[in-house]
Amino acid sequence: MIELLTPKEFNPSECQQKFTIAATDYAMQALVPFVLPEIYSKAPNIRLEVIPVQHREFQRWCEGPG
After folding, report:
1. CA distance linking residue 41 with residue 50, whole number of Å
2. Are 22 and 51 in contact (CB under 8 A)?
3. How would residue 57 be classed by pLDDT, with cut points 50, 70 and 90?
4. Which helix (H) or strand (E) holds 47?
5. pLDDT for 11-32, tens place per residue?
6. Which is the most buried residue in 16, 24, 61, 65, by most CB within 10 A?
């Protein structure tokens, strides 16, 4: 039972999950083009979805409810 609950070491080269990244226009232009090649070189089998988000909307997400 302990083995089932113990997380395995993450091996990016074997990962086949889909990840969604929310990014502002600035991040999409300034960061994403430089980060994606590095990510895919280490985890070639993942799927990434980059969705645009407005700066104010992103701030609301970070602040949480209330």
Report:
1. 17
2. yes
3. low
4. strand 47-52
5. 999 999 999 988 888 888 898 8
6. 24
